[in-house]
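User: Please predict structures.

Assistant: First:
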Amino acid sequence: MSRILLLCAELRGIGGVERLLAGLSALLAARHEVHVASFDPPETTPGVPLAVPFHPLGSGRAGPAVLRPLTYGAQRDRLRRLERELGIDVTISNLWRADLVSALARQGRGGPRRIALAHINVVGNPTNRLMLRLRPLVAAAYRRLDCLVAVSEALAGELAGLYRLPADRVRAIPNFVRVPADLGGQSRLAGRLVWCGRIVPEKNLPALVAIVAGMAGAGQAVSLDVIGDGPERVAAERAAEPAPHAIRFLGQLGDPLTVIARAAALVLPSRSEGLPMVLLEALALGTPVVAADCAGGGVHQALRAETPHDPSRDAAEIVPAGMLLPVPDSAAHRELWATVLADLLADAPRLAAAAKAARALAADHTPEAVAGTWERLLAEVMV
């Protein structure tokens, strides 16, 4: 048994990273002593319930650039202190700021082994533009760690090439989900689509809202539930103005799965992704998926597309659980989305077949499917 610390920059939200971290903590706790820490204020309650001890380390956001070295130094010292107090053997960091602090906390060859878990891609992702601009710094930090784990093979290849990391120091372990059994077999709402995530530029929500609003404005029986919040929400609400009756902005929900389980399809128009938790949750619920073949490659991999991954594709492709489409950033591609969605929503037998295929694909992303891979990796880094 090892003592494992899962580290994240912030845990106040209920997004995909937070949900994966909660799941990973429970998975590893079956055989190890597991703790979770974040750089949140002491009074913080995690947005996603945890079944293991939680340690808010304070010294939250990085602050002005001129003060960041001091901020990171304070976070490094607090992390080292917690690792000593708990006798941590392995620290697994999540997202770049936590990765950087973990790398800074390394002291020679002693102390905990260090793994970084990469959730989202860098190339073409505006959220991670600094990781591209500061490539030498990021590469130096990752080389201080024992292993970089990516949530898909495509993302592992991108990061290994981008930062010139040794092949034996980069692994791919897919995300996983477990959904409540009583949510399976829900009656679905005809014409109801659902989107769920952080409303940020790379998720491309305003484009999807405009597509659905246009369809509804033309008299088609379609509607969209939007779950989540973020800086692009105002733009998305503006895109809904031609048909406000068709778009519901539900904000952050403690339990988005009930809404996803009743939708006719999950729609993901993202420009870039790692391996979205909401995609895997939809598959496990038997909800068909219509998604963009975006940068990162995790969506393409999870949906088992037959054609090569191509973020600049122009054509639609039928995949077992639904449809793979171009990123809807042009008028022609938005028109294609509208046509594909209208055809799919009108085809009940095809939706039923996609729902059945979705559940089959979800078998690759259960805790049981990935537990052995995590155990083998932990054994290797502890040698």
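Second:
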Amino acid sequence: MGKAKTPIRAEETRRCTKTMRSFLVTYRGLLEEELRDADFSLAQLRLLYAVRQKSGVSAAELSRMCEVTPQTAQTLLTRAQREKWIRRAKSATNDRIVTTELTAKGEALLARGEAAAAHIEKRLWAGIKLSEIRQMNGYLERCLANSKD
């Protein structure tokens, strides 16, 4: 009897994994489309978010936080500085490190991106109760904890 459940469990876990992937791809696609209208990319949004999250962050740290190569991070930083979304300066503690902080223009752009994300999330999670969302968060957190075992 236990053997009959195993293939069904495997099918359902695979279905769940594929559905999560499709959900994330859909979310990312919708957000990228929304940002494209503002001539802005998801990578640039991640960069601005990382800068706000950790004031004075170095380019190397930003590349790790944004999960991009250092070269890609440098390209993103160059445009962000050119567009005056960020301000870069030498670190007060280490002359070899260049730190980064958001400008008012960068804050406004980040707010626009966050508003777009919130709008998309509201659309995707419509009709789903808060208790169900909390339950889903719990399941996903358990799965992530299992990945570390």
